[in-house]
Amino acid sequence: MTRISGVSVSPSPIQGNGVFANQAFRRGGVLLHLDDSRVVDSEHPLRPEAGELEYHRDFLPDGTVVLMQMPERSINHSCDPNCYVYSVKRERFLLAKRDITAGEEILMDYALNAIDGDVWECRCNSENCLGVHKCDFFCLPLELQLENLPYLDPWFARVHAARIRLFLRSAHMRP
Ligand SMILES: [Zn+2]
User: Fold this and answer.
1) Domains of the chain: which residue ranges?
2) CATH number at 7-172
3) Global pTM value
């Protein structure tokens, strides 16, 4: 698999280790080709002795569970992210949501492309931080769901098309 290596892992002011840009990226540029090759299932369970922990898992829209690899495993959440995931035929890429300068921390919104995830207290320090929130796109305030529609992974949007159609209709009918 081709990996793009314009990023590196180092301690983050948000939490633990984070991923940082080694170079500038233009809005829409590709930062990473995510490695989803390690599937976690009953035949290939997590190996805690090898540092494979539950919160290192990622849930793909078709129900497949994968073990996030480095460096994507270290990407922190922000309520004001600069990156988002975009799939092409089930290959996932990390794209820049806006121009990113060298040295900036790479941040994603964990609530995008997620349903029924954990509730957690966010300390991302962004101006629009939601504080305590649930890792579920459909639990975001309606305004944020609408704002984030262009940044949903097309794969997630396809799988959840019925729910998205429903909230678009309710948004349309608001006074
Ligand atoms: Zn936050």
Assistant:
1) 7-172
2) 2.170.270.10
3) 0.91
